[in-house]
Each structure stands twice: as structure tokens, then as C-alpha cells.
Amino acid sequence: MAQGQSRSSNVLVVPQANQALDQLKYEVAQELGIAIPQDGYMGNMATRDAGAIGGNITRRLVQIAEQQLAGQFK
């Protein structure tokens, strides 16, 4: 698989969000003490580590959405 390409079938609703999501991935990994390979290939990464990163990203995105919704209803 070529570098930078993903096998994921997920399509972003806002394609411009891709860079922000990548940045979030690296921030979460750093907070958890997990090193993401510099070449971007995560095939050798432990499933537990990948799951921890994904779970924390989801938690953070839900938290952001809740804050935005709470701000709309004040």
C-alpha cells in the first residue's frame, strides 16, 4: 500500500478536517506515550495501542461536540 493511503472505507464529511484529525491522532498518541512510526505505516503497531488511540480520539471528539451543543442551548 502506498504511503499516505488508507484502506479505510470511511469518508470524511468535511475533507478539510483530515489534517486536524491527523494532528489529534499524534497528540493523543503522545499523551498516551505511544510512538507512531514516522513513515505513517501503522501495520506493525499493537492492536491494543491502536485501539487506545482511537478510543481516546473518539472520547475527545464526543466531548468537543457536547461542549458545542451545550453552548448552542444556553
Automatic annotation (TrEMBL):
Keywords: DNA-binding. One of its GO terms (molecular function) is double-stranded DNA binding. The keyword DNA-binding applies. InterPro entries: SASP_alpha/beta-type (IPR001448), SASP_alpha/beta-type_CS (IPR018126), SASP_DNA-binding (IPR050847), SASP_sf_alpha/beta (IPR038300). The keyword DNA-binding applies. One of its GO terms (biological process) is DNA topological change. It holds the Pfam family SASP. It comes from the Bacteria. Belongs to the alpha/beta-type SASP family. SASP are bound to spore DNA. They are double-stranded DNA-binding proteins that cause DNA to change to an a-like conformation. They protect the DNA backbone from chemical and enzymatic cleavage and are thus involved in dormant spore's high resistance to UV light. This is Alpha/beta-type small acid-soluble spore protein.
